[in-house]
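Lecture notes, part 5. Sequence design as translation. It can be helpful to think of inverse folding as translation between two languages: the language of shapes and the language of residues. The source text, in C-alpha cells, appears below.
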C-alpha cells in the first residue's frame, strides 16, 4: 500500500492498513452504513504518513484528490470500533459466554519483513446501559487487546509456527485450531 499525494508516493504497507473490528449493530435491524472498503483504509501506524496527522483508527484514502479525500472518509465512512496491527490476519472471533471477552485468532502475516500475528488475543468488552456490548478500549487505542497465547519468537514465524485459525469457547475453556505447515493441530486452553 502506498500513500500518493501530489504525485509523491510513500510506501506504508508494513504497518498500514490496520485490521478492523467493526460494529455492525443488531442483526435484526437493517444496516445501511458504509465501512469504507474499498476506498477508505484504517490507519495503524500514523507516523508513516507524513503529509497529514492521523491517529490510530482514522481512515485515509491512498491517493486523495479533489473528488474524494481523507475528509470524505471521515464524513461518509463508519470507522472501525477497534484496530489491530496490520498483517495480523484475524480469521475467527468468539465471545466468552458472558460476553466479557472476545477471543480473536491472528493467523499471522505471510509476506511482512518482520512477521506479526501468530497468536490468540483477548479483547475485554463492557456492557453499556442500553444492553449492548463494546470493546473496553477506546477506538483509537492500539492496545485494546492482550495476547493470550503466542509463539515465543514471532520474528521466526515465517518458518513454521502455531498459526491459529478456528476458535470454540466452552465455559472456561478455549479450543483453538492451527494450520501450521507441518500438520493441523487442535489446542485446548483452560483457566486454572
Amino acid at each position: 500500500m502506498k500513500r500518493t499525494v501530489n504525485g509523491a508516493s510513500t510506501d506504508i504497507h508494513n504497518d498500514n492498513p490496520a485490521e478492523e473490528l467493526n460494529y455492525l449493530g443488531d442483526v435484526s435491524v437493517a444496516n445501511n452504513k458504509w465501512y469504507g472498503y474499498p476506498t477508505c483504509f484504517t490507519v495503524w501506524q500514523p507516523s508513516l504518513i507524513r503529509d497529514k496527522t492521523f491517529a490510530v483508527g482514522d481512515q485515509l484514502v491512498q491517493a486523495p484528490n479533489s473528488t474524494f479525500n481523507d475528509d470524505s472518509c471521515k464524513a461518509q465512512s463508519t470507522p472501525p470500533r477497534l484496530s489491530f496491527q496490520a498483517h495480523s490476519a484475524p480469521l475467527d472471533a468468539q465471545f466468552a459466554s458472558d460476553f466479557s471477552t472476545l477471543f480473536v485468532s491472528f493467523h499471522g502475516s505471510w509476506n511482512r519483513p518482520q512477521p506479526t500475528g501468530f497468536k490468540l488475543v483477548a479483547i475485554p468488552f463492557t456492557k453499556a446501559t442500553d444492553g449492548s456490548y463494546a470493546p473496553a478500549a477506546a477506538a483509537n487505542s492500539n492496545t485494546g487487546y492482550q495476547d493470550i497465547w503466542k509463539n515465543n519468537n514471532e520474528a521466526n514465524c515465517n518458518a513454521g509456527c502455531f498459526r491459529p485459525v478456528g476458535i470454540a469457547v466452552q465455559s472456561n475453556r478455549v479450543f483453538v485450531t492451527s494450520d501450521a505447515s507441518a500438520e493441523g493441530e487442535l489446542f485446548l486452553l483452560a483457566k486454572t
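The translated text above is only one of many valid answers, since several sequences can fold into similar shapes. The radius of gyration is 18 Å.
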